Amino acid sequence: MLSVFGRAPMSKVTAPLGKALNSTGLTPNSVTVIGTVASVAAAITMFPAGYLWWGSIVITLFVLFDMLDGAMARARGGGTKYGAVLDATCDRVADGAIFGGLAWWAVYSEDNKLLLVATLICLVTSQVISYAKARAEASGLSADGGWIERPDRLVIVLVGAGLTGAGRHFDVPWLDSVIYPAMWVLAVLSVVTVFQRVLAVRRSEGARDIIFKAESPPSSEPEAS
């Protein structure tokens, strides 16, 4: 949702920043790696330790920083296929670290199995949603759409974790459990999105065409008599 409605407004902000970063000598790929490494480091150190408020702030800053790689590539005249694969791969790593860090916190700090289940559902579906689209496009099909895409996931999980951390850090009781409904809402919407993407692939032109196996070359060895 947000990736569709928020793309134009965000591009007005990221375009000049992308041009500015290009002048520093950084490359789009280096920005991708820096943003990912920093996000992963924050997720696996701050979330398990219970620093949800500060962890969410740090991760949000570096997620926004990571968004600049596309703006930098466009300012240079376009990105590369390698850059696109690197960006997608790093996104999956960062998502895994965010949900993995929260899963650790759910078990060892909250001792809450239901929150763990919701977090693991989000972890798995976040990977499947992205993989379904990538695999479909590699097969010449379409898997666009669905209720939850990566920007939506990040907003829900980081706002939920951040508000929970803020409630506990600043002693605001009505905020200190926001993460619970946030993760279950995200889990349910993510499962629905998986089915939406599979259905989108099924409805794509050519999706149900039979794949013929290539004929194996004739053997050069003589047949046994």
Please give a structural write-up:
By secondary structure, the protein is mainly α. The protein has a single domain (2-203), classed as Four Helix Bundle (Hemerythrin (Met), subunit A), CATH 1.20.120. Helices cover 72% and strands 0% of the residues. Helix 2 packs across helix 5 (68-75) and helix 3 packs parallel to helix 6 (81-108). The longest helix is centred in the middle third of the chain and has 28 residues, at 81-108. The chain is globular.
Structural class: mainly alpha
CATH fold call: Four Helix Bundle (Hemerythrin (Met), subunit A)
Overall, the morphology is globular
What is the H/E string?
A: HHHHHHHHH
- Under the CATH scheme, the architecture is Up-down Bundle
Round the Cα radius of gyration to an integer and report it: 21 Å
The CATH class turns out to be Mainly Alpha
Counted up, domains total: 1
Termini Cα gap: 66 Å
Helix content: over 70%
Total strands: the figure is 0
Q: Counting H and I runs of at least 4 residues, what is the number of helices?
A: 9
Strand content: under 5%
- Low-confidence segments, given as residue ranges, are none
**CATH-level-4 superfamily name:** CDP-alcohol phosphotransferase transmembrane (TM) domain
